[in-house]
Amino acid sequence: MIIIAGPCAIESYDQAMRIAEFVYQAGATMYRGGAFKPRSSPDDFQGMGEEGLYILSDIRKFMPVVTEATQIHHVNMVANNCDMIQVGSRNMHNVELLKAVGKTGKDILLKRGYAALLEEEWINSYRYIEKEREYYCKQGTTYMCERGIRTYEKYTRNTLDLSVVPFLKNKGHQVIVDPSHATGRPDLVIPLSLAAVAAGANGIMVEVHDRPDEAKCDGHQALSFHQFTELVDKVTHLKQFMENNFDEN
Length: 249
Known about the structure:
Elements (H helix, E strand, L loop, with lengths): L1 E5 L6 H14 L3 E3 L17 H10 L5 E4 L6 H5 L4 E4 L7 H8 L4 E5 L6 H19 L5 E5 L17 H7 L3 E4 L1 H5 L2 H14 L3 E5 L17 H21 L4
C-alpha cells in the first residue's frame, strides 16, 4: 500500500525535515513536498524553487520523494532530485511537459485536471507520457492520481470521484487518490482514504503539516501529526482485512 505524505510546499529545511522524519516513522512510504508551486493567486506562496529541490535531495537519503515539475526546462533538474515526478492538475493538458517527463524514465504521478473528462482527456494525457517512455527508456510507471473535480457543490473544495478507481484498475492502471486536495477538509481525509482503499486504490496521497495553522500553503486541509498516525493505522488495518477476506482476483 502506497502512502504518500508531506506538506503542500517546502517552506524551510527544518520544516521539511521535521515532517519527513515524522511521516517516515509513522509509516509513510513516500514523501511529498512542492518546490515549485503553481497557485491560483499570484500573491500566494510559490515555493522555494531550486532550493526546495536540494532540501528534497537530503530527504531522499532515508525515503523516496515526489515533487512537481511545472515547466519543461525544470524537468531534468526535478528528475535528478526526486523519485517520482508529479504533473499537477493545471498541467495535465500540457502536452510538451507530458512528453518531457515521459522521457526521464522516472515514475510519474499524473493528477487529473479539475475539469478533465476521464477517457477523452485524462487517459489521453497518460498515453502521451507512455508513448515517450516506450520510445526513449522503457522504465518507470505512471500513476493516475484522482484529486477531485470541479462541480457545483461548495461544501468541499472539489468533488472526489471514487468511481474512477475501479474503472481505471480494470484497465490495468495504477491509481493514487488524493483526498486532501479533493475535499480541502482534514476531517474528511481519513474516511475518504478508507473509501479509496475499499474501492481498490493502490495508494493515497495526503497533506501533513506539523503546524497547519502556520503553513504557507493549504494549511487548512493538512492533517496534524496525530491525525496522520490515526490514518495510517486505519488504512493499514483495512488493507490487511481486505487481503485476508477478499480475493482481489
